């Protein structure tokens, strides 16, 4: 389970919106939340000597960051939660990655600020770099996420997570961790996983697509039965976890995954998932999120919380 949870903050109320989620997870696991703020050394550029760090300003910023984190740790959202604070000097993405590795973090929970503000944590920026390089699972939320509103308003309702698969063992890595996350977020209600396989129809004959659809359906049915019965090779999942599946066909796999999460099933079983969980590796093997890969495209385009799991 998620015992050691790292929550990077930048001093904004937007970043703090993930605190209730982190608190919920630690309540279930009796874990610890580590609040981290990275202070980037202010500097000026002088043509004669190059870039110069301004130590006086840094001396003022560090104490302020420490006080800020101490105040955050006392917030109602972290009441009865074991919280630690850590201020580090360095670029935010690099500092978060280093802290996650050094502290053997089980999960990073952070907010992507979208596209507002000069110091934003946007996709393609800090959040994406962290998701790429931290070996622990990374849970990225948005400030207007329905999940955040749902947990605050109705904390004991089920949480459903969409897990896109491509038939590879690499992609299946996300299942066990996603089951843990859904169960922890929904407790004491049950968690739900919806497994989906999107068959690409781009440039293919319909007969070939139909054959692939049949194989995908058999694959998902067999996989669900294996998971339910805890067969060898599968990590145990909670007994009350609800498992459903569907096969879809589309020209654009990444776009179809995003539509599936919205519950737009066009007559099929609706999913309406609150989170998308994906493995960092798919059929690409050890090449992490090669340019144009499905996982990376979903990461850049999604507006629902994303749970990225490394092998």
Q: Count all strands and give the number.
A: 12
CATH architecture of the largest domain: 3-Layer(aba) Sandwich
Rg over C-alpha atoms, rounded to the nearest angstrom:
21 Å
How many domains make up the coordinates? 2
How many strands, which pairing sense, and closed or not: the largest β-sheet?
Answer: 10 strands, mixed
Average of per-residue pLDDT values: 81
CATH superfamily of the largest domain: HUPs
Structural class: alpha/beta
Task: Characterise this structure.
By secondary structure, this protein is an alpha/beta fold. The protein has 2 domains: 141 residues, 3-Layer(aba) Sandwich (Rossmann fold), CATH 3.40.50; 154 residues, HUPs (Rossmann fold). The chain is built from 10 helices and 12 strands. The strands form 2 sheets. Strands 5-2-1-6-7-12-11-8-9-10 form a 10-stranded mixed sheet, sandwiched between helices. It has a two-stranded antiparallel sheet with strand order 3-4. Helix 4 runs parallel beside helix 5. The longest helix is centred in the last third of the chain and has 23 residues. It starts with a strand and ends with a strand.
């Amino acid at each position: 389970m998620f015992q050691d949870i790292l929550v990077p903050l930048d001093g904004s109320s937007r970043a703090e919106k993930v605190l209730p989620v982190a608190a919920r997870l630690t309540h279930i696991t009796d874990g610890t939340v580590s609040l981290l703020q990275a202070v980037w050394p202010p500097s000026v550029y002088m043509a004669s000597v190059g870039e110069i760090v301004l130590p006086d300003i840094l001396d003022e910023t560090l104490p302020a960051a420490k006080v800020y984190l101490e105040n955050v740790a006392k917030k109602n959202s972290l009441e009865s939660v074991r919280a630690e604070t850590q201020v580090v000097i360095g670029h935010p993405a690099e500092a978060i990655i280093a802290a996650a590795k050094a502290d053997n973090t089980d999960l990073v929970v952070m907010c992507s600020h979208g596209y507002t503000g000069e110091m934003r944590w946007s996709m393609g920026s800090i959040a994406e770099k962290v998701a790429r390089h931290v070996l622990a699972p990374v849970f990225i939320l948005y400030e207007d996420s329905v999940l955040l509103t749902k947990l605050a308003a109705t904390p004991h309702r089920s949480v459903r997570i969409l897990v896109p698969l491509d038939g590879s063992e690499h992609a299946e890595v996300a299942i066990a961790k996603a089951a843990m996350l859904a169960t922890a977020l929904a407790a004491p209600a049950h968690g739900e996983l919806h497994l989906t396989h999107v068959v690409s129809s781009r440039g293919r004959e319909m007969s070939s697509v139909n054959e692939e659809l049949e194989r995908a359906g058999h694959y998902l049915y067999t996989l669900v039965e294996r998971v339910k019965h805890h067969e060898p090779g599968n990590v145990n999942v909670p007994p009350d976890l609800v498992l459903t599946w569907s096969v879809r066909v589309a020209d654009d796999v990444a776009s179809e995954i995003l539509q599936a999460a919205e519950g737009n099933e066009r007559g099929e079983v609706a999913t309406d998932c609150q989170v998308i969980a994906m493995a960092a590796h798919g059929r690409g093997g050890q090449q992490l999120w090669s340019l144009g890969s499905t996982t990376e495209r979903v990461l850049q385009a999604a507006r629902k919380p994303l749970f990225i799991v490394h092998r």
